[in-house]
């Protein structure tokens, strides 16, 4: 068999002392002869086989041996399967009864259901069902079902292998309500006999009323002539529960030739229907196509609308089907993927050279339903020797990139793509098809990606992929041990995590195969079969010995495994061991033990350097490994006690103290040998892990003392010692942690949960993980409120005790620690923070549920929540610091930290108020005695104030100061807390602004001038008041000017206005007032500073211009007709907008207002909007009917003509822009658009430098009334224009 190299049965020495001779018999002897079955005298039994205990006393013996093996440093002793449990006694009795009747045990059938962790076995006419998760060495709760004689007709011998004649499906009814570590308590059983074609159904095996099954018999004997009618036996059956229907399920059964049957099981009976005579295509190689197996699609649960989706493995392809049950049964093939086809370029033929025939034997899907594992057997011929052989391979397939199962049909596409093709056995003996088709596979166990191959003759081989090659580990039993009936995966304590492999044997009970055994004990694939045939052949035995002799150092050579997950530290540390690591670790262990006895440290550092002890970091470092082995050492004598007796003993405390003493000596050893200095300078993470081992050990000692104190305090409540410990939430939490470790480490499965917890000290983080996952279960949400509070506070105290103890150890040994830059201590990891937050949140929820709580309860909850808040927030700070130092993304962590900080402190603050009220009532303080109330409140909230100051919890600090009306404390905190955006000062300013306490806000500006100036940059309507207080009149003038002209600004309400209105928008009158205030502030500048008169004049003129524009805006809006929509009339419009409004309205008055707007803007505005100015002149000349004016002035005197021209818009516009009394800000219109060009003989209308005269010449009436137009323009210009100087600084308008 494929057994690990250099391995000896760990019970061989024990059994050989009995001195009894073992008979050469392939059958299991009776009870009295079960003592020397594994003696080496068994023919063909390799010395490296799996130990096979038989007697009922085996459990204690195997467990004791496991402890010894766990403490040995020899790796070869740690690569054996672990015995999990014995068969129930009723099963042993049934086996003995069958033997007494002369039947061979090969008629047995058995299996393991992965979903329910139920084992089942058929012996004679009885079906036995039990859970292998039972804590007892021999399971006591075994359900015995009597198989009806019509179903178990043993005289109907159609099949040559009776053990393979049974198909069993377990239907779990309570899958949605399974609690933590709770065994299945409601399940149905479907049993099918392939010999008789009969089917039995037990609706609920846990119900006494359901032990009589419903039976469905075959309509007639299954003869060869009936195959064409679709009546042959089923070779695969799968079942699923119907959601929402009590104890009702559906099953699909497939015949080899493609007949598909649907069964519906209910309390009323069994309904069966053939829904398809042949779901297969029979055109492959012109020969019949056979169906191998059925598999449900894990991605699509059963529903009434989508129906049932399942996969069919045929002898050449995978098919995907859907059955819709309502309104009528409809069978539809969604897609198929050919694996073995005529085209050598498709499928796997091109990857298997020299094949004569290919068989697809079995298929399994992973739990996600995304990866297919197919066992392939290939018949080949050796070209050299011309001998035939069979090659076994594992084909791994996955969905193609971009494939979506939502599409209805993909018949013309390649649905799947090959992920890998692993050759398991390169050359194996030729087997018949009956043997090949009896081979099955199982997937989903550790190591990740490993597969168990169950051969038809009862062997189990685990395949794993390691560094590009396939490795094999065979679970090997002698013939006396019987066959391997089935394999499954041990349930893991974590979601989406893989468990160890579990093997159900025919006679040797249930075994587990540890991951370490597979990784370290596996060998390269030999060129031989998976079957047992020839295992007693002397030539084969010699070949095995030679193979083991040449591969004795396989463990040292193989040190990497591609299947392990990156987050599994233990697996990483396990796989990454090399031969050099082994030598360095062995040397370090020997040198340390020599140091303990002699105290000598000469040349140790150089020797360790030569062995490469300093090459690796983290958990793979040999110094870290030795440190971990010290604190995780198992105690041999712990198994003598159980439960509360174990806890009550002093064994735990004494062992923990021994470990602490030894670890302290280890630290001294590292210091004296200067290894500590070497590690601290080059491998800081390894040094930190070693020191954290000391932290965790010290924390565990403190936790043990706390548990002793809790036990003593309960003694007066309970008489039973077991009730003392089992009544607390800390006990519950310890049980959960120990159970999780037991389930994930098969070597610990026979240990008590308490033993495991106090042994796996390096995994103390698991306590916080279990707390985060099962806090409601631990607190007992179904218990009364007082019990919940007690349990929550107990667990909270345990958590804070652990963290405080670790921090104390860190402070006491701070000189031993390396620089923590970029390193995250264990207490700052996400799993620890999550656990602390869960219990803190649970306490907060309890506080919200009940208002009236007694004083002691409130005081205890306050104390626990305050301690939890402190350690949790400190953990966040360290984690954030580490991420910043490493340059990693940390914003999300900061957001989470701030959110939880505020929530915790807010709850603490409310709890402090309740506690203060209770203390006042307790001390009979009157309502009017405010001073004593304030003193109590200050005393209660002192710890809260310190936490809030350390973590910049500004809301809490503000609330404290506000409720105490303590301005002195407020100002002190504002000076101390300086953070981003002004720190606490900024927060206080914002609070005062929100509450409209503007006088208090501005009063703080006396002491915090710069801080308030920065804050009010975003609130300019208040900034100018602070600037005036600071005598910054120039800045105040600019601020007022900006606020007055800001289009989106608003004012905070005054004291006289409604306090409910946070802000009101500025009206045009408000803006004029602000401009006048700006003018006053500018005047104050000139009065304070000598030589600033020019500044005031320029500033005053600009302000006056803006006042005029605001006035014009009011006038323009008043002229508008009702049909013109102007949004937000109080918003200051831009000059361009005002001018466009005037031109759009088209009236004479608004046309002249446009020129007024141009006059009060700056020269830069007029230059940049010259085209708009030209548009205004064109609009002005269009206002008159020049032909009519010309006709009315014919023959009139010049005075009459001039009087008519003075009434025109053209005259008034010319007078406003170019007249002697025109007021213009910042230059003249001549600079932009002169009235006439002096040297212009003929106007060029494409020229950009036009004049008013050129614009007039473009008018249609200019040829006739051009003289009148020019006279109107020039008549207004009599004297030089009055030009107003422009302020260069404010020319931006």
Automatic annotation (TrEMBL):
<dbReference type="GO" id="GO:0016973">
    <property type="term" value="P:poly(A)+ mRNA export from nucleus"/>
</dbReference>
<feature type="compositionally biased region" description="Basic and acidic residues">
    <location>
        <begin position="526"/>
        <end position="547"/>
    </location>
</feature>
<protein>
    <recommendedName>
        <fullName>Nuclear pore complex protein NUP133</fullName>
    </recommendedName>
</protein>
<dbReference type="GO" id="GO:0000972">
    <property type="term" value="P:transcription-dependent tethering of RNA polymerase II gene DNA at nuclear periphery"/>
</dbReference>
<dbReference type="GO" id="GO:0006606">
    <property type="term" value="P:protein import into nucleus"/>
</dbReference>
<feature type="domain" description="Nucleoporin Nup133/Nup155-like N-terminal">
    <location>
        <begin position="78"/>
        <end position="511"/>
    </location>
</feature>
<keyword id="KW-0811">Translocation</keyword>
<dbReference type="Pfam" id="PF03177">
    <property type="entry name" value="Nucleoporin_C"/>
</dbReference>
<feature type="region of interest" description="Disordered">
    <location>
        <begin position="1"/>
        <end position="51"/>
    </location>
</feature>
<dbReference type="GO" id="GO:0017056">
    <property type="term" value="F:structural constituent of nuclear pore"/>
</dbReference>
<dbReference type="Pfam" id="PF08801">
    <property type="entry name" value="Nucleoporin_N"/>
</dbReference>
<keyword id="KW-0653">Protein transport</keyword>
<dbReference type="InterPro" id="IPR037624">
    <property type="entry name" value="Nup133-like"/>
</dbReference>
<feature type="compositionally biased region" description="Polar residues">
    <location>
        <begin position="14"/>
        <end position="28"/>
    </location>
</feature>
<keyword id="KW-0539">Nucleus</keyword>
<dbReference type="InterPro" id="IPR007187">
    <property type="entry name" value="Nucleoporin_Nup133/Nup155_C"/>
</dbReference>
<dbReference type="GO" id="GO:0031080">
    <property type="term" value="C:nuclear pore outer ring"/>
</dbReference>
<feature type="domain" description="Nucleoporin Nup133/Nup155-like C-terminal">
    <location>
        <begin position="984"/>
        <end position="1122"/>
    </location>
</feature>
<feature type="region of interest" description="Disordered">
    <location>
        <begin position="526"/>
        <end position="562"/>
    </location>
</feature>
<keyword id="KW-0509">mRNA transport</keyword>
<dbReference type="InterPro" id="IPR014908">
    <property type="entry name" value="Nucleoporin_Nup133/Nup155_N"/>
</dbReference>
<keyword id="KW-0813">Transport</keyword>
